[in-house]
Design brief:
76% helix; mainly alpha; ABC transporter involved in vitamin B12 uptake, BtuC; 326 residues; globular; 14 helices
């Protein structure tokens, strides 16, 4: 109970800090007043600029965290992460191609780019899955991370080629988007993300038992009555859609799905009925704080959010990799 109260308090404080911090600092009491009344002095800043940004960051962070926890259970590897498994790279490549073709404008771009990113994410999942399957056998969890790194490198090279051949305006838009960030956050973008992410997020939250059994291995899961192949496909599809939607609205942000699942699994245990909601709260708050740091550390410049998350995620990844080699 104390852990849940702590997570709820962390998420609330992170959101209040995210709303209050910025070029024009807003005191916590003024933030609350603006949220309660549209006539408050800071209501325009809080309601139209910072609230949609904080909500989008929280939902994206929560979705990436849940995706990371589900993938780690699926492949039985604590190093699994949407960014490391190539899903983000595939989604990012498709989104960059869509922008280069002129589909990222104000008209159709709000829906065309996420649709392209989702298709790219699914393609990356299929490629990683194929590379991880040895000689026609079942998925090899030990090769999955390596295959994800290969696919990420491949999609990164293709993105470089597409950006090099793009026009100046498309190059600038795609490059700024690819750095990762929430500077373009709005209520409309929040609605776009929610429409894409609601169904796969609900599917993962409704499958804690399947994730628990998959984390034991395919044969024990089958023995306990789970259709492992079908459950595996559903988890892959849900995590791909969540990751693709995240990439489409804020660019490629890595390591969010790695930090909170690893920390909370030791605190709350491996059962996903408790783990997934906790990871959602912790990852959402973590990304909101990372975004707050990105836009306040070097004011008036805004750092890429992916750079801030990498500063935390890369050392943790190194620690996990070292432990796995022991």
């Amino acid at each position: 109970m104390k852990a849940w109260l702590g997570l709820l308090l962390f998420a609330l404080v992170a959101c209040l800090v995210g709303i209050g911090a910025g070029a024009v600092p807003v005191a916590p009491s003024a933030v609350v007043a603006a949220l309660l009344s549209p006539a408050a002095p800071e209501a325009a800043i809080v309601r139209e600029l910072r609230l949609p940004r904080v909500l989008l960051g929280f939902l994206v962070g929560g979705g990436l965290g849940v995706s990371g926890a589900a993938l780690q259970a699926l492949v039985r590897n604590p190093l699994a992460d949407p960014y490391l498994l190539g899903i983000s790279g595939g989604a990012g490549l498709a989104a960059v191609v869509a922008m280069a073709l002129g589909l990222g404008g104000a008209g159709s771009g709000a829906w065309a780019v996420p649709a392209a990113a989702f298709a790219g994410g699914l393609g990356a999942v299929g490629l990683v899955y194929r590379l991880s399957t040895v000689a026609g056998r079942r998925l090899d969890p030990h090769l999955l991370v390596l295959a994800g790194v290969v696919v990420s490198a491949f999609t990164g090279a293709l993105m470089t080629a597409v950006l090099t051949l793009s026009s100046a305006e498309a190059l600038r838009n795609a490059f700024l988007w690819l750095l990762g960030g929430f500077s373009s956050a709005s209520w409309r973008l929040l609605a776009v993300f929610t429409s894409y992410a609601a169904l796969p997020l609900a599917a993962l939250f409704l499958a804690p038992r399947a994730l628990d059994l998959l984390s034991l291995g395919e044969e024990p899961a089958q023995a306990l009555g789970l259709d492992a192949a079908r459950a595996r496909r559903r988890v892959y599809l849900a995590t791909s859609l969540l990751t693709a939607a995240s990439v489409a609205v804020c660019g490629v942000i890595g390591f969010v799905g790695l930090v909170a699942p690893h920390a909370l699994r030791g605190l709350l245990g491996p059962l996903h009925r408790r783990l997934l909601p906790a990871v959602f709260l912790a990852s959402g708050g973590f990304l909101v704080l990372a975004d707050t740091a990105a836009r306040t550390i070097a004011r008036p410049l805004e750092l890429p959010v992916g750079a801030v998350t990498a500063l935390v995620g890369v050392p943790l990844f190194a620690v996990l990799l070292r432990r796995s080699l022991r």
